[in-house]
């Protein structure tokens, strides 16, 4: 291979570029990034960046010295708009084409939006630009904030807003937030963090419309067909969120945190199979052996993970397979995610299924919420641990997480010296 | 010079966080004592709660790894070192000599 093009210059794209060089690729390396910013880390956007504890410099994933060492061509602020049928040419939206021998698809995902959400004061939180705009709205004294969606982004953003002194309500369509990843028992325990943090939680109800000031400024919501992210000119200011039972929650600021859609639109008409992501084998390789996919956009072995750790781990395997010309290694990591909210750190690892039993192995639940010392919960099936959840218990969590990895892949024994 | 705890209370494999500013983590790695800045240089996490293996500590949040002897990161996502601090034991009490007081790395 003389040229490899990495499409997407965020976390997984940068890691792929690093891996290409680390694994000996010394040809032409092109990185295409839709955002104008150099690669930055997204997790702090809903936490320390939003509260002002971290500035933009803390978000940088790379620096000039490393970029010089990578010896890559950075095409930032440019979107890919297509990949030819043979996967040998990347088409860019500025009219340029990049002939290439290999492609790493790392185009990530975009925040889902509510249709017709063009009211001023309505935000999503996915990019640095999103976070800058939201931060600007939160520094003008206390506001009434409604967060739609109680997932990780929604919960962390709600926590940050409450910490800044705003009046916050979270609206979650499901019976409980985070019920899919954590299961009902632990989702209930984690939901109590909202209450303890002074945030109102409204569950089991959808959003019918976003209301704005002025005639005809109401925007109906068709929850079954969430829109795609597209920044439009701000309309009249938002005044409230109308729930499907007719209740209206007054709001000065609305944050829509209802998930993300993989950025595969540019691949329409290519030879690649697309279904909620780019379909890959267990080694991140697509239908074309010289095209691999990593990060939020990749559906690897039937599952698409939107986790930071997956985005950093997949590139090593994907790049190895790309350079080998076929799949020589598969991704074998245990899924892991974390969330910081209301002064606690939630960590989860493993693969929970619906029928798994859960038990508290350490710590306690007090008044429906994690006790002051946090807790460690183990999910079990047929006497085996399938997943582990920690609230502020990092050391036993790490031990359990390593054990899960060892059970799955007994390669090297874990040391028993840690107390 | 800051007293930390009794040597007897920090067996091999154990670590303790010292609430200085910035906080420091002291480790007993197979009988050798080391002190480094407690906060991971990647994101806000306490290395005293990390996973100790030989002279390496793995951050509990994103698995960045640091060499306790030098403070240097041995893998991503951390790219900047943590400071190291000199450790002494007097009368069975562990003391940390903060880098800032020493002026040079221990």
From TrEMBL, chain B:
Domain Rieske: 2-96
Catalytic class of the enzyme: oxidoreductase
Cited InterPro entries: Rieske_2Fe-2S, Rieske_2Fe-2S_sf
Keywords, sorted A to Z: 2Fe-2S, Dioxygenase, Iron, Iron-sulfur, Metal-binding, Oxidoreductase
A GO MF label: metal ion binding
EC number, UniProt record: 1.14.12.19
UniProt-listed NCBIfam families: PRK09965.1
Protein name: Bifunctional 3-phenylpropionate/cinnamic acid dioxygenase ferredoxin subunit
Species of the source: Streptomyces fagopyri
Source lineage: Bacteria, Bacillati, Actinomycetota, Actinomycetes, Kitasatosporales
